[in-house]
Amino acid sequence: MGYDGEGGNVIVDPKNVIELTDAALAADYTRVRRAANLIAREFTKAGKEAVARELRSLVRKRGVPLRASGYLEALPVDSKSRLPLVEEQPWPEAPVFLGKEANRIFHDFLMDAQHVGELSAKGLASRLCLLLSGPPGTGKTLLAAHVAAQLSRPFYVVRLDSVISSLLGDTAKNIRSVFDFVPSQKAVLLLDEMDALAKLRDDRHELGELKRVVNTVIQGLDSLDSHTVVIAATNHPHLLDSAVWRRFPYKINLGYPDMGVRKDLWTHFLFEDQDESQLSELLASFSKGLSGADIEAIGLAARRHALLNSQSVDLAAVALAVLHSEQGKSALPQRGGLDAEQKRRLAQELKVRNGLTGAAISRLLGVTRQAVYSYLKRDAENQHG
Questions:
Q1: Is the pTM of this model over 0.85?
Q2: Hey, where are the domains in the chain?
Q3: Tens digits of residue pLDDT in 80-90
Q4: Are strands 188-191 and 229-234 parallel, antiparallel or unpaired?
């Protein structure tokens, strides 16, 4: 039984401690990892994130010598290459940020999955299949991992490089092996890049064998019991066969984040959840079109620079990186700060292209309002000159 060492409150479920001990004595690395992740999650809930991170890191590092010494998990493998068809991934440490509609469907799905036994008894259970679509970097894999974490289930991701064999007949066989494996694990399965496995069967450019692969995917989904959770993710939903669409009652389209989600992303990744609401809203106002991954990359890079330079976050460098970023191609903030000419051009762009006020530009650039007006006046004179 674990305690937090300060207030004496229980923070670890005794059942998880017993499971961890039993798994360790049985030399079952898979169970050790799952039990340790459950305990780490409880530490996180108790506000002991540093302990949780150390525990997760320890489990990952100690698993390497186990595998090197010949330990292998009982995963399905390709009959020719002997490579595993799925890999277990840890529950996520990063939070997920969703818009209102996506959040509603996400929690509906979790509620149905958590009460599937009760629903099944009344004949009301739906197939626990969730389809995630959207551009790269919008959080599809992260959201799937959060489903596994919320349900306290192992998280398996299909390895397409192993499943898709050069021998087309083996691809269908591999897919069947994956669908046979997952129900016995009480796991969450992620079929990433689903369009690679389930393209439209009327595509004239596809061979008949590839069309049989799609049929195998459909048959695999139909074979699952009501307790098995399968999540598919695709960047190209228009390529999916319509029969595949029908196998996924729950669908979430993860587009680029809206204003509210962008504000939350900046607050978390740049300001470490500190109360910088106005600055987060400013950055959100002109970062439309960036994905959550883009904002994360820019925000964390700015914090790294600040830490190593023993300075506060350079908001001007962040703003410049945002304006120089494109969808899926984030530009990282430069080190060392912006010179006067860069700030002048940035002020002009923030004013003309993004409609920010002089006061807002002043806050982002870290200069006085008089300096901002001087920048803008100089540009106006140059244009008229």
A1: no
A2: 1-73, 74-253, 259-332, 338-385
A3: 888 889 988 88
A4: parallel
